[in-house]
């Protein structure tokens, strides 16, 4: 698993089912400074849609979302 972007915080949400990855990500984003990036490693396919929707509504930026086998990697910049 190669890091494709620099990040300030990493959250391992493997094996967590909806809505836990989103809740954990929201909590971490709330503790971060504007402009910082979180990398989330997830296995729940619903995180792709959940993170896009949350970021659009909350003013954060989904930098990239990729799949590597069973893993879904998300990089989100706090707004």
Automatic annotation (TrEMBL):
Gene Ontology MF terms: transferase activity
Protein name stated in the entry: TusA-related sulfurtransferase
PANTHER family: SULFUR CARRIER PROTEIN TUSA, SULFUR CARRIER PROTEIN YEDF-RELATED
Any matching Pfam family: TusA
Similarity field: Belongs to the sulfur carrier protein TusA family.
Domain (UPF0033): residue spans on this chain: 11-35
InterPro entries to which the protein is assigned, alphabetical: TusA-like, TusA-like_sf
Keywords: Transferase
